[in-house]
Structures are given as structure tokens and as C-alpha cells.
Amino acid sequence: MGERLAVVSGGETGIGAAVARALVRDGCDVLIVGRRADVLLATAERVNAECGRPGAAQAVSADLTDPEQLGGVVEAVAGRPVDVVVNNAGGYLGGDVSTLAGTAAHWRTNLDANVLTAVLLTEALRPALRRPGGRVILVSSIAAQRGGGGAYSAAKAALHGWAYDLAGQLGPEQITVNVVSPGYVTGQVLGVNGGSVLGR
Known about the structure:
Layout: E1 4-9, H1 14-25, E2 28-34, H2 37-51, E3 57-61, H3 70-77, E4 84-87, H4 100-125, E5 135-139, H5 143-146, H6 151-170, E6 176-180, E7 185-186, H7 187-190, E8 197-198
Parallel strand pairs: 1-2, 1-4, 2-3, 4-5, 5-6
Antiparallel strand pairs: 7-8
Helix pairs in contact: 1-2, 3-4, 4-6
């Protein structure tokens, strides 16, 4: 068991899986959180094998848009201080915007996936964040600054405003809050199978 614990949402594939792998290699235990239990388990097993640290990465299945499911994540923490929370869950979610009802559903879906997941996970783990020294990372997108993604761009931009608020609240407890805004990243850069382009 490592001395530090990290929680990574959306860690099944792409950027999240690469972050989980880097944290395990750096000596952290990592809880990889996402909705797809089978993919999560496969990722955790692969990360453990690649890093030579059996059991360091654990899969935790939860829909982070559902407040009722956050209890499972807190339970998996098992009372340990949480050193790092990486809010990576989300992505561009398409939808039918040919009607007002469709537009409303499309916007709500993107806001839930990209903003609400980060808010609920961070708030659920807030009491467990290590003091001093905890780290909260929000994964945004270059689309937050440049546009081009409609509801997705707006949702990612919302993370930046919230980060200022959260940093003001957690800073006095010596917990940092940062936002990273990747552009397009290839699978080869991430060290995952295939060379498909993975956007945030």
C-alpha cells in the first residue's frame, strides 16, 4: 500500500487512464472511478501489471451525476486521507438540438457530465482531503478558451470559474486547486492502445 491516495474520475480510458498510470508509477494508490465496471477493472489490472504494483489501482464503479452513488466512492476511500482528486470525467456529448426540448436536454447532459461530476466528487471527498497538502485537479479543455464545442465549451469554461471559488475556500487549508486545459492528444502520447485522437 502506498502512502498517498489519489482518486481519478473518468479513468477507464484516454487521459484518465494515463493519469492513473502516472500516479501509480509515482507511488500512489489510485481509485479509478467511472460508470463502466468491466472497462474500469480491465484498466486497473493493466495499470497494476504495467507498473509492477499489484492492487495499487482499484476500480470503483459509480455514476458521478447521481448523488446517491457517491457513497460508494467515499466507502472505497476507507477513511484514508485523499492526497489528489483528478476530475477527468466528461467529454463532448452530442444530441438533437433541432427543438428547444432537445437543446435543453443536450445542455443539461453536457453540464452534468462535465461540471456536476466534478462538483459532486470533490464535495464528497472534501472532508477527506489531506490537510495540508491536498490537490484538486479539474480537467477542462482548450475549447473552454477557444469555443467550437457549444454546450461542451460552456461546461468546460464553468470549471474555471468554479476553480477560483474552490481555491478561495480550500487555500486557507493549504489545499491547491488547479485547472488544466488539454488540446487534442493522440493515444500514442498517452501510452494507450491505438493512435486515435482523444479530445477533452
